[in-house]
Amino acid sequence: MNLSRQVACLWCLSIAAASAEPVHPVGNIFDPQATPAESVYHLSILVISVCAAIFFVVAGLLTFTIVRFRRKTDDHDEPAQVYGSSRIEIAWTVIPILIVLVLTMATARVVSAIQGRRAEANALQVTVIGHQWWWEIRYGDLGIITANELHVPVSSAAKPAPTFLRLESADVAHSFWVPQLSGKTDLIPNHPNNMWIDPRQEGTFLGNCAEYCGMQHANMLLRVIVQSPAEFGKWVAAQKLNAALDSRADEGRETFLALSCISCHTVSGTSAAGTFGPDLSHMMSRETLGSGAIPNTPANLRAWVRDPQAIKPGNLMPNMQLNALELDEVVAYLSSLK
Ligand code: CUA
Predict the structure, then answer these.
(1) Among the four 82, 180, 214, 265, which has the fewest Cβ within 10 Å?
(2) Which ligand 1 atom sits closest to the C-alpha of 214?
(3) How far is the CA of 188 from the centre of ligand 1 (A)?
(4) Chain-centre distance of CA 330, in angstroms?
(5) Ligand 1: which atom is nearest the Cα of residue 130?
(6) 273 close to 297: Cβ distance less than 8 angstroms
(7) The pTM is what?
(8) Closest atom of ligand 1 to CA, residue 133
């Protein structure tokens, strides 16, 4: 390896290391882990196969023609000219129509199978509301409101536990996309859409907003956390607890509740009841801040509260211009919201 190559490699590595902080590798569409994603995967394999076959037939005939009919040294006359052939014209019209018809019907079948599924009476139903630039997640029946991290139970053939999603938007069009779990479904203002997922593997599945929705569209990241029924039950119980009773940071609470934070954020059991921003009742149970912008660590939480615009420029949380004491107290209080 020569020197310039080595320098280039080091440079690439340093770029990779520098950009390694907010890692959010969106799942692989070729490794589906739920029925809707799997149906889309099978359909895409069919479409790719048909297109590949067409490509090889066309490219093969073209290559054959170029080689077989190239001009030879003893060619002196023009070859026989063909002016129209009904048979060939019918063939190249009918064959593509049949191919398009097959692809249309296969697509329609997948779309209607996914869209047509109705929620069973006791199924888990969750409303996901897109905001610039975060996800509000409401478990109506359970009385839980959270953000950016959708917890669902694992599903299996023996014990199916699908989660039905009602997708809404509070402002502009967004799109719900967790590649390993479902196809993209738009969140349209004043027009609820539906999707469902039945993840068959526990773990965290990453997704993002898939419809350009403004400046921080790229930082509108989503996590689906698939848990065993027991773990999911524990999470539900913890989220239902009243945040005010659970918190131990009394001194910070006064400061927080006196600031205008409460006009946008809710902390259950307190006078903070704003709904413009994410519900903070159990914010420390979440893995990230700013909808996946940064990991939820004590240092990051402090940096975020001090100046959210420095981390996610254009986001709708203003710099509150807190002094050092207020910052300490607010961060201490938020850190107590487990
Ligand atoms: Cu929300 Cu893009």
Answers:
(1) 82
(2) 2
(3) 11
(4) 30
(5) 1
(6) no
(7) 0.83
(8) 1
Identify the residue whose C-alpha is closest to ligand 1 atom 1: 174
How far is it, in rounded angstroms, from Cα 109 to Cα 120?
Answer: 21
CATH 2.40.480.10 for domain 247-335? no
Find the 63 Cα to ligand 1 centroid distance in Å. 45
Calculate ∠ Cα 39-34-113, nearest 5°.
Answer: 40
Instruction: Check residue 145 and give its pLDDT.
Output: 93
Question: Cβ(130) to ligand 1 under 6 A?
Answer: yes
SS3 103: helix
Task: Please report, in angstroms and rounded to a whole number, the separation of the first and last CA atoms in the chain.
Answer: 52
Ligand 1 centroid to Cα of residue 279, in Å, is 19
Per residue in 199-210, pLDDT (tens digit) is 999 999 999 999
Classify 311 as helix, strand or coil.
helix
